[in-house]
Structures are given as structure tokens and as C-alpha cells.
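Late entry, written up from scratch paper. The run itself happened at the end of the previous shift, but nothing got recorded in the book at the time, so transcribing now.
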Amino acid sequence: MTVAVARLAAIALDSDDTLRLGRFYRDLLDLAVVHESEELVVLRADGVMITVERVVNHQPPDWPADSIPKQLHLDLFVDDLDEAEAAALALGARKPDTQPAPDKWRVLLDPAGHPFCVTLPPTGR
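Output as recorded:
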């Protein structure tokens, strides 16, 4: 049995209208609003959060055609960013050059190229 590197924290959805999509999922799933702004909506579910993150010029997926693929990423809580990053890299992740807030979270790419973030949990969890 292996020891987990991280804990599933959030499923993050891209949108050009965070408030509209956040309110949709709030009402659809009866979730609590943790944070709500034009840039980010955070909803709390049992044991995990759903975030809606603003992406300028977002184009929705055209499933099933897939010329514009599905768009979401995982946020994973970790206790130590450096250790989690090293462990994920050892498992086959890659680290892109762009790191928006490396003291708070690290963007990594899974072996298929999907981005995911290892992040420190908010204080008072």
C-alpha cells in the first residue's frame, strides 16, 4: 500500500461568468458558498470543494466533437509544497515554467498533460 501524496481538495471549473456558473452549482447541489467574486467562486461540498475560476475569452467545450476539449482541473491539498511537488514529479508529473503563486500552490501536469495543482489548505480547515 502506498502513502498518499495529497488529498483531493477541489474540482475547478473554467468559466467566463464565475457568478452564474457558481450559483448554478450552488443551487443544483445545495452547496455552501465559501467565497464569491467575479474571479473566483468557492463552494463547499462534503469533503471537497468546487471552484469556478474566471478564464478570459473562455470557449465552452463542444463535446462530443472535442475540437474544444473538456476543461477542469484538480486542486490537491498537501502539507508541504516542496515534498508534494517532488513526489508528484517522481510519479511522472511535469512542472511547467509558469507558476502564478508558487508559495501557495504549484501547477503540475499529469503524464497526459492535464494541469493539476498541489496547494496548501486554507488556514482553519
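The radius of gyration is 15 Å.
(Scratch paper discarded after transcription.)
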